[in-house]
Amino acid sequence: MKVWVDDGTCRGHGMCLTLCPEVFSLTDDGYSVAITSDVPTELEEAAREAIECCPEQAISER
Ligand code: SF4
């Protein structure tokens, strides 16, 4: 599983960081970035929850 954050859509709510801090982080600009694009199997469920809960639908699974 790979994830990608559209930094043009992200509004920095931080929901993804709360749900899956091992995969998502905030940049100095206050937007989310996937710190690992290849999500380990044990974190896939949390990463999918982050995708579903993002208010801006800024996270994609690839
Ligand atoms: S939940 Fe969505 S909008 Fe909020 S920081 Fe994460 S990617 Fe950005």
TrEMBL record:
Its cofactor is [3Fe-4S] cluster. Gene3D superfamilies: 3.30.70.20. GO terms for molecular function: 3 iron, 4 sulfur cluster binding; electron transfer activity; iron ion binding. The keyword Metal-binding applies. Keywords: 3Fe-4S, Electron transport, Iron, Iron-sulfur, Metal-binding, Transport. Ferredoxins are iron-sulfur proteins that transfer electrons in a wide variety of metabolic reactions. This is Ferredoxin. The keyword Membrane does not apply. It comes from the Bacteria. Pfam families: Fer4_15. It comes from Mycobacterium gastri. Residues 1-29 form the 4Fe-4S ferredoxin-type domain.
